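Worked Example 4.2. Consider the chain below.
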Amino acid sequence: MVERFEVALNTPAGRLTTAIDVPTGFIPITAIVPVTRRLGEEASQLEVQRVIAAGQTISCRMGCAACCRMLVPLSAPEAFALREYVGQLPTDRRTLLFNRLGDTKDRVKREGLWDRLNDVAEAARPVPDEQLDPLNRAYYALRIPCPYLENEMCSIYEARPAACRELLVTSPAELCQDLVQNPVTPLPVSMRISSILGLVWGSLTNSPPRLIPLPIALEWAERHEEESRRTWPGSSLLDQVLDSMWRFLSQAFQKK
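Applying the procedure from the previous section yields the following structure tokens:
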């Protein structure tokens, strides 16, 4: 059985109202990930409508994968959800994916970055930006295609991380060929869904909010499989998600 909730959120780009169905029983954290992402996407769509009304355009198009060389962060719930999704893929697709992941791991290890990625994922406290920025830049400098890309198309599009969904730009697409040197103009994001899910998971498990680099997400999720089996009341998980969203939105309004 499910319970329907009417959700209303005031965002800097307008008011978001929607209905959400949440199971009435106990559910794992992965069950709340799709709903949370949906709220993030609806908030993003309000931003898209706002910039279009202002005469701008979104440059991102299907097949444009310039940003798919960045080090993408996931929350723990997203990593668990990705592992579930990959586990349900047909065997041939899963084999190809694991081969690409293995190639990426070998390359990142040769460059001396693999252990640093694991250190971030397993950190006992949130890693400050001044430590993350050099790692992000070092990874991006390698220009490694995301292992989930197939012919420059996302092979896990419906399950892709929130950070990928949130990255839209209004600057010319060609500037994305070098996201460090070029003046790229991203669409404002009032709610970072990976951060919100990370905060929720940290609160539920009394652990630090952590962000897990995408190349190691499946390995991390496997190491922490037992944690992923824990369950909570569905309405309680939604309450925690909405509470974190309201905090993010409050900060976004303060910055305006």
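The first strand starts at residue 2 and ends at 11. The chain is about 50% helix and 15% strand. Compare this with Example 4.1 before moving on.
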